[in-house]
Each structure stands twice: as C-alpha cells, then as structure tokens.
C-alpha cells in the first residue's frame, strides 16, 4: 500500500493514499483546519464516527483523540490537507488584535463543517506549496496561518472562544473519559494530558477510581468488549481487534485465553 504524508512547511501537512488505509490513533494537541480535496475520511472519536466528504472543510479542536480510515474516490485518489493553528501564532494574534475572552465555548461537538467558498479557495491557494512550485518561508507560513484564523472568525465569530482560550486544561471526569476512550491505543501521557493531569496524578486518580493500574484495566476492558462483540454481535476478532487497541491478533488471542480460560471459537 502506498501512503504519502508530507510536511510541506512547519504547520502544513498533505496526505495522499491510493487505496483504503486505516490510520493509527492520533493525539492532536493543537487545533487544526483541514480540507478534503478528494475521497473521504471516516473519523472515529469518543462521540462516534464522523464522515468528512470530498470538498468539505473541517475544524478540529485541540486535545482530541481520533482514529481515521481513508477512502480514495472512484478515480482512485485520496487527498487531504491540514494546517495547524499553533498556540504561539494564536497568542500573538490575540494580543495584536486585543481579543478578549469572557466566557467558554460550551458546545461539546468536536468537529465543525463549514461549506464556505472562501475557506475552500484558501486551501486551493496552498496548491503551489504542495506542488513545490513555490517555497514557503517561515514568515509566509505564519501569514497563511493568520489568514486561516481570519477566515474561521469570519465564518463564525464565536469560534474566538475556542481559538483564543488559553486556559490550562482542567481536570475532566476520569471514569467517564476512560470508559469512552479505552479503545484508543495511545501512550499513558496522552491520556493524562487529555484528562488535565500529570502522569503521576493520572495514575493516582486512576487507581483510586478503578482499583487497578491503567495498563491492567485497559487490557481487561478491551477483552470484555471483545467478548461482547463476539458473543452478542457475532463479530470475528479480525474485524475489531485493531479498533479495540490490540496491535496484533496473536497477542489478542493469547490475552483472551488467559483472561477467560477458553478461546474465542469456544464462545457459545
């Protein structure tokens, strides 16, 4: 399978694949704005699955865990371009424009779709950098990020409460978060950051709530979900083992037999 993921300049990433590709779990610590040039992306997050269709602009808030499945179009092309709206540029913009944030953005939705001609034209204007017909200097790269900020705010002024919210990540309900995100195979420090904790505080709080270490709890939780999917949904391990955070089938089968005392084929 041929997969291309290229960093054009510091904050601009271009992805291109030529057949269906299942991406790994990714943790995005910064906001990003993306455009689906061709094909479509199925994004799995803690609220379900979102489909990003061709010619769609998507805004994804920072501190999210997602997994993607990339589907080429009928012509065989998949192209997606994303620009990161990093904190340094956002802070400079807010200071220069005297942006004042007096409330939090209350919406819980993770992604916003804006079929806006100006936003679509913006991404098409990045083609020369993708095609390498023009080189982006650091100054020009920042100008393109600032242009994206202006277009987002023009599309929805309330997005300022997202873009310029620089408050420290506050602690979230750990039990609720882990029950929604246990299937994501990411390092412990990513779980800690997403719940507003240091790694040591995360481990301490986790043990207090679940009476288990994160590693053991995650393994048991994933195996219990696997048992449910096999028995009640009649699914095969090959259909879901990656989606439940297992890296390979042999590890899954061995762990399953060790926990339940029987193999997956012996479930009745």
What characteristic shape results from the CA principal axes?
globular
Name given to the CATH architecture of the largest domain: Sandwich
Rg over CA atoms: 21 Å
How many structural domains in the coordinates? Answer: 2
The percent range for helix content is 25-40%
Question: Could you give a short account of the major beta sheet?
Answer: 6 strands, antiparallel
Number of helices: 11
The structural class is alpha+beta
Order of helices and strands: EEEEEEEEEEHEHHHHHHHHHH
Arrangement of strands in the largest sheet = 1-2-10-5-8-11
Highest CATH level, the class of the largest domain: Mainly Beta
What CATH calls the topology of the largest domain is Jelly Rolls
Q: Please provide the count of β strands.
A: 11
| Average pLDDT rating | 88
Task: Give the CA-CA distance, first to last residue.
Answer: 37 Å
Keywords: DNA-binding, Transcription, Transcription regulation
Domain HTH araC/xylS-type: 172-268
Pfam family, one: HTH_18
Organism: Chryseobacterium rhizosphaerae
Task: Kindly summarize this structure in a few lines.
This protein has 268 residues and is α+β, with helices and mostly antiparallel strands. It has eleven helices and eleven strands.
């Amino acid at each position: 399978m041929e997969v291309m993921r290229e960093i054009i300049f510091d904050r601009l990433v271009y992805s291109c694949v030529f057949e269906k590709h299942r991406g790994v779990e990714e943790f995005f610590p910064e906001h990003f704005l993306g455009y689906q040039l061709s094909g479509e992306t199925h994004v799995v997050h803690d609220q379900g699955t979102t489909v990003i269709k061709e010619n769609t602009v998507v805004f994804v808030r920072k501190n999210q865990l997602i997994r993607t499945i990339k589907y080429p179009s009928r012509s065989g092309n998949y192209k997606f371009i994303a620009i990161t709206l990093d904190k340094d540029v956002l802070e400079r913009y807010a200071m220069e424009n005297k942006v004042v944030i007096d409330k939090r953005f209350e919406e819980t939705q993770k992604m916003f779709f804006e079929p806006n001609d100006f936003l679509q034209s913006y991404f098409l204007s990045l083609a020369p950098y993708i095609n390498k017909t023009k080189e982006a200097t650091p100054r020009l790269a920042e100008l393109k990020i600032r242009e994206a900020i202006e277009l987002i705010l023009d599309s929805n002024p309330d997005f300022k409460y997202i873009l310029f919210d620089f408050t420290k990540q506050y602690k979230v309900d750990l039990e609720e978060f882990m029950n929604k995100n246990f299937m994501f195979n990411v390092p412990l420090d990513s779980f800690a950051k997403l719940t507003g904790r240091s790694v040591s505080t995360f481990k301490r709080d986790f043990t207090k709530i679940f009476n288990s270490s994160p590693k053991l709890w995650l393994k048991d939780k994933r195996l219990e979900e696997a048992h449910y999917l096999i028995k009640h949904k009649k699914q095969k391990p090959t259909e879901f083992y990656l989606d439940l955070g297992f890296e390979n089938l042999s590890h899954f089968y061995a762990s399953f037999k060790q926990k339940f005392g029987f193999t997956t084929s012996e479930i009745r």
